[in-house]
């Protein structure tokens, strides 16, 4: 296990008590889940849809004044952020399956995103949430592009990884869409000898092209052609809205996973994990940031990434309240709880990217 802090790991008995306390927090929260949560997510969906319609109309009204075009870009970016974060991400975790609403069901929900939702559910819901920050098991740690710990060998290309980081942030939608395809070496690189995919490589490739193709056709062909006299302004507006969404979502996700104090783990560290050990790993492998309720909503409540990793199927609206309880439990058992302001956490992400751009002392001696 590696990280910047040196907190001693609690013994098994302590972790068992720790797990019991966290289980109680989950149980108490789920007992409150009901109509209020259903009303909340439906209201968010209404706001998202009205914002998208308003944004697309405002883009067309750009011929009256550039102000309308700017309003259109911001409204459309806002709608895409809501769709991806507070709606899509949380719905696809099954947080609202209890509603038995076919339109808000985690198994068949499709989002406004280039990534195929089935692919995302496989590598994110199962792989990432099961093997959080286990090097060699969790492909979300660094996305196969960034070196973020000494657990990964340094390569000369890492020297410039801040540029890779910035490019990934701007084109995050494509990175998410391509993530599983890249991990399975579908188009390039040495093929994986084994794969646990429930579909064939051909089906994975076709799903990637099908979803990405539909998404790009909608944003960059259909809507611009539908507003033909305003083809270029609408095209540019859609592109800029996607970039703004990408920058926001990537920043939120990086602040929950790649801050300076986040730990990494080896496969051996996590063999035969108990529930308490699993909870402990989720906390050490995650980080939160603080802010007002609007910030939590726009982040899909991934501002409470610790709580999301602990309780991924609990409706995210409860994470802020749960966070106070989880932090108190961590204090009780002397377990670190990584939180801070949004700006502070983001700066530590950049610091981590820069730090591991260079080889360790041992590696440097051999370069």
Short overview:
Helices cover 59% and strands 0% of the residues.
Could you please describe the fold and organization of this structure?
The protein is an all-alpha fold and 367 residues long. The chain has one domain. 59% of the residues lie in helices and 0% in strands. It is built from 14 helices and no strands. The chain has helices at 12-30, 35-60, 66-91, 117-130, 161-170, 172-183, 201-226, 231-257, 275-284, 293-298, 305-310, 319-332, 342-355, 361-366. α6 (172-183) runs antiparallel to α7, α7 packs across α8 (231-257) and α8 (231-257) packs across α13 (342-355). The radius of gyration is 21 Å and the shape is globular. The relative contact order is 0.15. The model has no long low-confidence stretch (mean pLDDT 90).
Q: How much is the radius of gyration in Å?
A: 21 Å
Instruction: State the separation between the terminal residues, measured CA to CA.
Output: 25 Å
Hey, roughly how much beta strand do the residues contain? under 5%
How many domain units? 1
Number of strands: 0
What series of H and E elements makes up the topology? HHHHHHHHHHHHHH
Low-confidence stretches: none
**Structural class assignment:** mainly alpha
Largest β-sheet summary? none
**Proportion in helices:** 55-70%
Q: Which of globular, elongated, flat, extended, rod-shaped describes the shape? A: globular
Instruction: Determine the mean pLDDT.
Output: 90
Query: How many H/I helices?
Result: 14
């Amino acid at each position: 296990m590696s990280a910047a802090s040196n907190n001693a790991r609690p013994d098994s008995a302590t972790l068992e008590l720790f797990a019991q306390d966290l289980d109680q927090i989950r149980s108490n929260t789920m007992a409150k889940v009901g109509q209020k949560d259903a009303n909340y997510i439906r209201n968010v969906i209404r706001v998202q849809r009205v914002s998208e319609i308003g944004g697309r109309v405002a883009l067309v009204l750009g011929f009256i004044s550039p102000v309308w075009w700017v309003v259109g870009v911001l409204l459309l970016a806002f709608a895409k952020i809501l769709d991806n974060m507070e709606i899509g991400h949380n719905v696809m975790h099954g947080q609202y399956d209890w509603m038995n609403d076919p339109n808000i069901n985690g198994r068949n929900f499709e989002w406004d995103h280039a990534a195929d939702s089935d692919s995302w559910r496989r590598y994110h819901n199962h792989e990432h949430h099961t093997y959080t920050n286990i090097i060699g098991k969790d492909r979300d740690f660094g996305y196969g592009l960034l070196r973020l710990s000494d657990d990964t060998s340094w390569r000369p290309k890492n020297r410039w990884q801040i540029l890779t980081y910035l490019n990934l942030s701007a084109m995050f939608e494509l990175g998410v869409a391509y993530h599983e395809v890249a991990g399975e070496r579908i188009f390039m690189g040495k093929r994986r000898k084994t794969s646990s995919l429930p579909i064939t490589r051909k089906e994975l490739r076709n799903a990637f092209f099908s979803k990405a193709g539909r998404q790009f056709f909608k944003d960059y062909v259909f809507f611009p052609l539908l507003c033909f006299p305003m083809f270029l302004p609408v095209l540019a507006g859609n592109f800029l809205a996607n970039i703004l969404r990408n920058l926001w979502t990537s920043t939120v996700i990086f602040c929950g996973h790649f801050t300076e104090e986040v730990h990494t783990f080896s496969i051996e560290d996590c063999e035969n994990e108990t529930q308490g050990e699993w909870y402990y790993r989720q906390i050490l492998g995650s980080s939160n940031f603080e802010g007002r309720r609007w910030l939590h909503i726009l982040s899909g409540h991934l501002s409470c990434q610790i709580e999301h990793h602990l309780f991924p199927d609990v409706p995210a609206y409860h994470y802020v309240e749960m966070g106070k309880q989880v932090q108190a439990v961590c204090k009780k058992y002397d377990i670190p709880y990584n939180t801070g302001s949004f700006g502070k956490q983001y700066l530590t992400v950049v610091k981590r990217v820069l730090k591991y751009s260079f080889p360790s002392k041992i590696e440097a001696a051999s370069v």
